[in-house]
Amino acid sequence: MHAIALELLAPHLSTAKRCLDVGSGSGYLTLAMALLMPEDSLCLGIEHIPKLVKASISNVAKRHKNVLDSGRLMFKVGDGRAGLHEFAPYDCIHVGAASQDVPDVLIEQLAPGGRMVIPVGIRHVQDYLVIDKDEAGNIH
To answer: What is the side-by-side order of every strand in the sheet holding 110-122?
Structure first.
């Protein structure tokens, strides 16, 4: 799924100023997103399990400490279903865990011209959605 997410987000990541990884887990995908973004950008991972946030920072610091130290990559503890208002809007949003519906708050935090990838559905019946917001704010 990480490879598919990166492929779908890549055209947006290359010019993105801010991106959000909801359910950042180990930090692997969040780091990959940050490395595909311009050097003056910010990639944020939000995870509700504090131990995972600590582990993700430790994982990234082993080989890419400079990305953390530069402020280009940050991890936060929180409920990703609410997004992260403090840094919105986001040019890219990746959601790792399925939701029954696309959370309106994440659509609100998606910047015009932005893209979100999110699994939607219940248990074993899910769709992997690509949601684009045009410059007028319309969702496609």
So the answer is: 73-77, 42-47, 18-22, 90-95, 110-122, 125-132
